Amino acid sequence: MPVDEAISTVSPLTRYDWPALLQQLDERGFAVFPGILDHFSCDALATLYPHETAFRSQVIMARHGFGQGEYRYFSYPLPAIVQQLRQQLYPLLVPLANHWATRLRLPQHFPAEHQHFITQCHQAGQCRPTPLLLRYGQGDYNCLHQDLYGEQVFPLQLAVLLSEPEEDFQGGEFVLTEQRPRMQSRAQVVRLNKSDGVVFAVSARPVKGSRGDYRVLQRHGVSEVTAGRRFTLGIIFHDAA
Ligand SMILES: O=C(O)CCC(=O)C(=O)O
Ligand SMILES: [Fe+2]
């Protein structure tokens, strides 16, 4: 059976307490979605990694100074579960994305449906799919970065941990930093178990201050994996130039 067919469908995302999660995203720039995929799907996605025909390109992180480890960008059509997750999560995040754009005084208005946003990306020359699988072994890590691939930027993205901490790997913590104007950067470790997703700001988000909103810049990365193997699914909503 092709691996894609072995992967079950996404459970409805409406099962989450969206008002609470959106509030957390707004206030802290990230929110954890426990068990966003089932373990079977996590394993099926991780085993896709060696299937080269599923991917459009591979990046060996050390060659670019991105860290150590590697990742592969899926090609279109995406595996069904990745496509579903991207398409179903997007509209739930659009109200916050538009609220942030207004507060950051950006002209961007995100359409309600992901397909319409993808059409905008393609019209802007960003035609290549960005969802990816990342693979880390012992000693690997992912330097702090922002997943920006052109002028079209959806301000939130998802990462799903496909491996079990302490069982499949040691170390390898998901790290977020935020840089506030005229202040030193603050770091946050996000504790994830296998199948948990974290939605976080790609780059800029507004934070309420005493004199109105100011702009905070976030970056994300992964600390060193000290043993074992760690896989992640990354879902970025804009496409790449
Ligand atoms: O492996 C991770 O947890 C981080 C993945 C990542 O950088 C991404 O999904 O954009
Ligand atoms: Fe990333």
TrEMBL record:
InterPro entries: DUF2086 (IPR018655), Oxoglu/Fe-dep_dioxygenase_dom (IPR005123)
UniProt keyword Iron, yes or no: yes
Domain Fe2OG dioxygenase: 127-240
Gene3D superfamilies xrefs: q2cbj1_9rhob like domain
Transmembrane segments: none
Xref: Pfam families: Oxygenase-NA
Keyword annotations of the record: Iron, Metal-binding, Oxidoreductase
Family: Belongs to the iron/ascorbate-dependent oxidoreductase family.
Name recorded for this polypeptide: Proline hydroxylase
The organism's taxonomic lineage, starting at the top: Bacteria, Pseudomonadati, Pseudomonadota, Gammaproteobacteria, Oceanospirillales
